[in-house]
Design goal:
- The chain is α/β, with parallel strands linked by helices.
- It has a single domain (3-251), classed as P-loop containing nucleotide triphosphate hydrolases (Rossmann fold, 3-Layer(aba) Sandwich).
- Helices cover 47% and strands 11% of the residues.
- It is built from eleven helices and five strands.
- The protein has helices spanning 3-9, 31-55, 72-79, 98-102, 107-110, 128-135, 141-160, 174-186, 196-203, 205-219, 234-251, and strands at residues 59-65, 88-92, 119-123, 163-171, 226-230.
- It has a five-stranded parallel β-sheet with strand order 2-3-1-4-5, sandwiched between helices.
- α1 (3-9) packs across α11, α2 packs parallel to α11 (234-251) and α3 crosses α11 (234-251).
- It is globular, with a radius of gyration of 21 Å.
- The N and C termini lie far apart (58 Å).
Amino acid sequence: MRLADTLLQECIYHASTGLALDPARDFGLASYECDARLKAVRSGLDRQQQLLWANDGPALLIWIQGPDCSGKDGVIRNSLRGLNPQGVRVSDFPKPTELQRRENFLDRYRQQLPAPGMLTVFNRTPYESLVSDLADGYIDDSQAAGRLKQLLEFETQLAEQNIHLLKVYLHISKDEQKNRLKQRLVNPEKHWKLSIADLTGHQCFEATQANWNHALSQSNTVSHPWHILPANHKPLRNLLFCSLVAQKLESLNLQWPQPELPFSLNDLDKPCLPLG
């Protein structure tokens, strides 16, 4: 078993520890080691994604969740770099509009599901419609319970459609979030990333983490577990995420399609037939 695969065994969500796991954990790997290992894993991931695309059957759907500044954009950019862009799609889900709030909360996610052979990433997950809407007062506890039931049924429906789901939570500490917000405040090139919601999220960090921990524990199933990746150290975060995607694709055990060939080697030497 590869080292990264061994580390990932420790990142599967456990109700006894949950988000109490140390987000600064580095597993003894220096940044340069993570970068070197990431390069190797990414090379294998490229082949696995080509297999997924060539088979045009199963699809991979990755849900990425995490606090502000946890690196959702960064992990997508660094880990999926170099893959065939025809077979990759990233969908972002900002705060829903008033029109979307009048629809079923899952509708906008259903509209972005991957076609056969695609690798699709959801930057933020349908679980925000449970955690954030409950915290903001859009739904009550009873409605939240109903949404959780719908979410678990939705995950089952994905499996029935041959869509393989991977749920990832990027775990950072409040101190690390503060450092990253400071970096954005002093760098004019990062100002566009800031919103008042970032400040509110930081001030309410502990309460928000508790809400997410509760949601993760309720939705962590044997068939669709959550993976909690320590994300204080960006190189390790990228390595673990990329390894997790590679591991998931390898588990599909895909082979190169072997259709009946439309022509033979000998046909290449034959003269052009009259057209028409």
